[in-house]
Design goal:
Strand order of the largest sheet: 3-4-5
Order of helices and strands: EEEEEHHHH
Strand content: 5-15%
Number of helices: 4
CATH superfamily: Ribosomal protein S16
Radius of gyration: 33 Å
Number of domains: 1
Shape: elongated
Helix content: 25-40%
Length: 147
């Protein structure tokens, strides 16, 4: 799944005799590596069921299951450290209510975090050497007009 420069993977249970992109038996998770931190969602109970009945995971799926702790649970190894989780965004409604109260003077205004602005382009100052020399009217050559 996904698109150019944004890969997204589904973790599925498939029969080994079926084509690579053929019909899957069951969908058990997702992996989005480009998100910060990477999104890994796995149905742990279904993973344990399929491993217990003899499913053979690929090397990539073993790496993902090792991060979630499902592979260690199946093998009887100690659990890995917990995964990083993306901070939850405040809802738009609560943000609106907080800003409206701040505008009414009921609550002290808090600064709103916004995306950093792009650096402004610096304008180059003209150099004194590059400026054209002024020519005084007295020194300028005079053209004679002949009638």
């Amino acid at each position: 799944m996904g698109k150019i420069r944004n890969p997204q993977y589904r973790i599925v249970i498939a029969d080994s005799r079926v084509k690579r992109d053929g019909k899957a038996i069951e969908f058990i998770g997702v992996y989005h590596p480009k998100e910060e931190p990477s999104l890994i969602e796995v149905k742990s109970d279904r993973v344990q069921h399929w491993l217990s009945v003899g499913a053979q995971p690929t090397e990539a799926v073993i790496a993902i299951l090792s991060k979630t702790g499902d592979w260690q649970k199946y093998k009887g190894l100690p659990a890995p450290p917990p995964l990083l989780v993306k901070a939850e965004k405040p809802s738009r409604i609560s943000r609106y209510e907080l800003e409206s109260k701040a505008a009414a003077g009921l609550v002290e205004a808090t600064p709103v975090k916004t995306a950093p602005k792009k650096a402004e382009k610096k304008t180059a100052e003209p150099k004194a050497e590059a400026a054209p020399a002024e020519v005084k009217a007295e020194e300028a050559p005079v053209a004679d007009a002949a009638e």
